[in-house]
Design goal:
Elements (H helix, E strand, L loop, with lengths): L1 E3 L3 E2 L4 H9 L5 E3 L8 H4 L2 H8 L3 E4 L16 E4 H10 L5 E5 L1 H4 L23 E5 L4 E5 L6 E8 L2 E6 L39 E7 L4 E4 L4 E6 L3 E8 L4 H24 L1 H21 L1
Parallel strand pairs: 1-11, 2-3
Antiparallel strand pairs: 3-12, 4-5, 6-7, 7-14, 8-13, 9-12, 9-14, 10-11, 10-13
Amino acid sequence: MQLQSIDTVESISPEDFKHKYYNLMKPLIIKGLAKKWPAYNKWNWDYFIETVGEKEVGVYNNIKSDSYTPINTADAYMKFGDYLKKVKEGPLDLRIFLFNIFQHAPQIVSDFTWPDELMKGFVKKYPMLFVGGEGSVTHMHFDIDMSHILHTQFSGKKRVLLFPHEEQYKLYRKPWEVLSIANYAGYHNSFDYENFPAVMRAKGYEVILEHGDTLFMPAGFWHHMEYIESGFAMSLRAMQSDIGGKLGGLWKLFGMRGIDTLMKKTAPKWWYDRKKKQVYAAANKELAR
């Protein structure tokens, strides 16, 4: 992997953000954005346990999906409060993602402000909470709706690995999916370059997010996250401004995912083997360049 650091600012003008990052599809860390929100000091484990603790949520372990696994299938279900209590106790390889806590506690929305001055198109019905215990992993993927993301860390530290969408074949993307066939867990200590040599040529970014850091992830960016400490974050999503970007997200959501789920149910082994051949063929082309 050929990794570089991400530009970091305390604050940025809308004009600079648009011309230097949004238009160029370049990631950025904004350290001061969330400091203006009540949530910066208000949100903690006990606050969420008290507010939404009785809501049942899906939890996900560290095991990568296989040829039989539909996208975003939970590994178990439990009360949100019970899960958070386990997270507080120590290392836990369970995480929660895409949890719309604000549907169940609408008053929490007043704890932050939508940064409309930076970009338009925010999907304001769906701010999402992401929670992980120390040691939990979000495996390498890109978001299926192809939205721009402002991802703010509120507690704990999280290691993030990022790649532009066009690096997908070097990352061993599975066709018809948003996932890589390679396992990037613990990549900073070791990675299986023997079986996935094209990853050596992938150009990306690495950062450790801490309390209050807001990461701008441009649409389609691949990301892999590892919870160094138990923590939680919120993502604000904004649809792409051009019609091509919007249509691409819709196709992946309702076309690509539906076809992949159907094939996993009807011919899982054949479908997986077919995709695996395509993965390595695409990676070998990258190596031959």
